[in-house]
């Protein structure tokens, strides 16, 4: 999974579709947790066709790693199938979403 260090405080990750998704997000989480300061993270889901419970579990752990460092995780560009899963599980109220990566980056910059 490519991780672009967009700035000193913002990383953009573009995970692969399953089966590599959960492992890639876990690797990202470990990198985020080990970085000082903790970066804001944008996860670009535009290329991900579907998510499963293992994927959601890893996303929640990544969110916690960001929150522990007082940083945000933004989910960008989920397709209809992924968005439906977030809605069904109630995680649409847990994660912050953006329509695309560019919008997510702008929102993080505005938030400071």
Explain how this protein is built:
This protein is α/β, with parallel strands linked by helices. Helices cover 46% and strands 17% of the residues. The protein has four helices and five strands. The chain has helices at 21-34, 53-68, 80-89, 101-111, and strands at residues 3-5, 10-13, 40-44, 73-76, 96-98. A five-stranded mixed beta sheet has the order 1-2-3-4-5. Helix 2 links the parallel strand 3 (40-44) and strand 4. The relative contact order is 0.18. The model has no long low-confidence stretch (mean pLDDT 94).
Instruction: Tell the overall outline.
Output: globular
Q: Overall pLDDT, averaged?
A: 94
- Residue ranges: pLDDT <50 for 5 or more in a row? none
Major β-sheet profile: 5 strands, mixed
Q: Which value, in Å, is the CA radius of gyration?
A: 13 Å
Number of strands: 5
- Trace the largest sheet across and list its strands: 1-2-3-4-5
H/E series: EEHEHEHEH
**Strand share of the residues?**
15-25%
What structural class should be given to the helix and strand makeup? alpha/beta
Relative helix content: 40-55%
Q: How far is it from the N-terminal to the C-terminal residue, by CA?
A: 26 Å
How many helices does DSSP assign?
4
